[in-house]
Amino acid sequence: MSRPRRTILLVEDETSITEPLAEALRSEGFETQVAGTVAEALELARTAPDLVLLDVMLPDGSGFDVCRELRQSSRVPIIMLTARGEEADRVVGLELGADDYVVKPFSAREVIARIRAVLRRVNAPEPEHGANVAVEIGELRLDPGRREVTHRGKALELSRKEFDLLELLMRNAGSVVSRERLISEVWDTNWFGSTKTLDVHVSGIRRKLRDDPSQPRYLHTVRGVGFRFAAPGEA
Ligand code: CA
Fold this sequence. Notes:
Elements: E1 7-11, H1 15-27, E2 31-35, H2 38-45, E3 51-55, E4 57-58, E5 61-62, H3 63-73, E6 78-82, H4 87-95, E7 100-103, H5 108-122, E8 135-137, E9 140-143, E10 148-151, E11 154-155, H6 160-171, E12 176-178, H7 179-186, H8 194-209, E13 219-222, E14 226-229
Parallel strand pairs: 1-2, 1-3, 3-6, 6-7
Antiparallel strand pairs: 4-5, 8-9, 9-10, 10-11, 12-14, 13-14
The structure holds calcium ion (CA).
């Protein structure tokens, strides 16, 4: 069975990066489009690429603006290309809804491995019957089939990772879920950046649920271990 070729939109202005990377992507069987500016990126994004590799520093603006703009209307997987040492950049990118990031300087091989991992997760088949049943705890309802979370009947805007994390916690409501398990099921086990990233996503969920970490109704921190979501009768 042949599958249509995947298209990668590479948004980066440095040709010392785009030329070898675009060549490596093509030789791995990806269609590759290159945009060197924010304007070109938004233009090319209309052709519905399968994944966007997005640099932060662009000549006419920031990759974060591109990320924010794309997320208004699209769930296209986004991997940010960030400068070494710019921890804040990674956090901002993930908060804006990017799926992952790679730190410069990177090898084409590393980027391609990351692209495959993200595409695999995004295109994973629907879970088995039963896994699609909505979970309700307190005034919170999570519907995996529609990928929708509502609180007091109002839809919450969660990023893909926040949703996955919340789903795992809610499915295990009442039990502690370890940080290791959250990281390995929601991200890649061997992802060096995940510990900090997990906390960023937990904070994001708490903010959106208006759940006070010092007096939580839903999401409890279990120091040194992980997190526990309130059981249905508890919240
Ligand atoms: Ca750049």
